[in-house]
């Protein structure tokens, strides 16, 4: 039998995690809008800052989106003059992306805006609690990501017939 506080869906740990994530994403979105970016655009710029000359497929994996979504996102960022794409020196059918000077400058402004949003969360904890919280979140991700956590198995579907 579940503990009494888990009988109510809004008190379940997964629900609280989702609520926290959505609230944090909304705060990040508001902060990033002040510099003219969305969260997905900022994430792409941050990943490009860390991985210059990444291909669209590499960026998609880092940003946890499909290559098609990344292609659309890169086209938009390129249209704004924030990203420059060029043919890879390794493979002629692959394009790599790199931040422009304007893209680098906007990434720095985005980092400052996002930091402000994250500080609201961090400031609600003692320093020691932040360390414990990070550790617990990493453990939660690992526990849910573990293959044995998925009764169906990775990349398998349950048949409903």
Tell me the β content: 5-15%
Task: Identify low-pLDDT runs.
Answer: 155-161
Order of strands in the sheet with most strands = 1-3-2
Helical segment count: 6
Separation of termini? 30 Å
Largest sheet: 3 strands, antiparallel
| SSE series | HHEHHEEHH
What general form does the structure show?
globular
Helix vs. strand class: mainly alpha
Q: What features would you describe in this structure?
A:
This protein is mainly α and 161 residues long. 59% of the residues lie in helices and 7% in strands. The protein has 6 helices and 3 strands, in the order H-H-E-H-H-E-E-H-H. The chain has helices at residues 13-33, 39-50, 56-63, 67-79, 101-122, 127-145; strands spanning 54-55, 83-87, 95-99. A 3-stranded antiparallel beta sheet has the order 1-3-2. A hairpin with a 7-residue loop joins strand 2 (83-87) and strand 3. Helix 1 (13-33) crosses helix 5 and helix 2 crosses helix 5 (101-122). The longest helix is centred in the C-terminal third of the chain and has 22 residues, at 101-122. The radius of gyration is 20 Å and the shape is globular. 17% of the residues are buried.
Helix-strand blueprint:
Blueprint: H1 13-33, H2 39-50, E1 54-55, H3 56-63, H4 67-79, E2 83-87, E3 95-99, H5 101-122, H6 127-145
Antiparallel strand pairs: 1-3, 2-3
Helix pairs in contact: 1-5, 2-5, 3-4
List keywords for this structure.
mainly alpha, disordered C terminus, 161 residues, three-stranded antiparallel β-sheet
Précis, in short:
This protein has six helices and three strands. The chain has helices at 13-33, 39-50, 56-63, 67-79, 101-122, 127-145, and strands spanning 54-55, 83-87, 95-99. Strands 1-3-2 form a three-stranded antiparallel sheet.
């Amino acid at each position: 039998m579940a503990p009494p506080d888990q009988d109510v869906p809004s008190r379940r740990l997964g629900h609280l995690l989702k609520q926290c994530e959505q609230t944090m994403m909304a705060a990040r979105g508001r902060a990033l809008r002040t510099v003219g970016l969305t969260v997905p655009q900022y994430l792409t710029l941050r990943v490009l800052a860390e991985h210059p000359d990444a291909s669209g497929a590499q960026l998609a994996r880092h940003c946890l989106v499909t290559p098609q979504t990344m292609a659309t996102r890169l086209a938009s960022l390129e249209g704004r003059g924030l990203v420059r794409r060029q043919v890879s020196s390794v493979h002629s059918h692959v394009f790599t992306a790199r931040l422009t000077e304007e893209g680098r400058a906007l990434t720095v402004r985005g980092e400052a805006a996002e930091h402000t949003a994250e500080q609201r969360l961090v400031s609600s904890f003692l320093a020691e609690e932040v360390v414990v919280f990070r550790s617990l979140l990493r453990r939660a991700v690992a526990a849910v990501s573990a293959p044995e956590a998925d009764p169906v198995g990775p990349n398998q579907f349950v048949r409903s017939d």
